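In the laboratory, one determines a bound structure by crystallizing the protein with its ligand and collecting diffraction data. In a computational setting the workflow is compressed into a single prediction: the sequence and the ligand go in, and a structural description comes out. We illustrate the idea with 2'-deoxycytidine-5'-monophosphate.
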Amino acid sequence: MNPGKGAFPDHWPDSDLSGTRWRPSTPLLITIDGPAGAGKTTVSRRLAHILGYRYVDTGALYRGVAFAALEAGIPPDDDAKLAALCANLELKFEKNLDGTRLLINGRDITEALRTPEIAMAASTASARPSVRTYLLALQRHMGKDRCAVFEGRDMGTVVFPDADVKFFLDADPHTRAVRRFKEMRHPEGMTLEEMEAEIRKRDEADTRRALAPLKPASEAVRIDSSGLTEDQVVQRMLEYIRTKTGA
Ligand code: DC
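The predicted complex, in structure-token form:
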């Protein structure tokens, strides 16, 4: 059901919405926040595709920093070393026939990002001020022309408090663990129970950290995707956007 992240093309033969296109009359910046496995990636991509908007997976940026840190032998909680690392880091999304790729200093590292090790290191690095400051500026630059769907944890609260439309997508931890388990390329070596434990641990770290913790913006529309298909979630979002923009 879930096409996974990064290396997959932006089309969905399984979706009733695959032929749907609608361009809002004013350029919107849309944020979708929520915990791991809530369905943000697929839903954000489909929504962006329907609207003809850019899709930005900000978790991939945190994973990119974590990847670069681990490769350089920098502990993902060492703020000073992370700051020096970020000063010389160029993170860029590029589209090719395989979908959206993440490049660090010109090197395609997309395939290396989806491991439990990188996920935990990204969660740790994402609590460091140097990393958040670096990515805050980069994300705002990416959103300067609007017409984009940004997916993350603090999009509606910190990075784009002036976003036109804000969603907070959630699901119960078991449902999220099952989704992540199916989506992982190499689930060998990790049981579903371990996956659920890892998700709960990351939720805890992401929600409790002092800087930009995971929480819904006060005006965010909250959607629980536990019992919903991806199409149903996207339909709800589209309906909300249509109503809000008077379309
Ligand atoms: O969505 P993801 O699993 O790829 O995110 C990886 C980590 O990055 C996650 O543990 C929290 C962090 N993150 C963040 O702090 N802020 C964001 N906007 C996106 C991700």
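The two ends are 30 Å apart (CA to CA). Keep in mind that any predicted model is a hypothesis to be tested, not a measurement.
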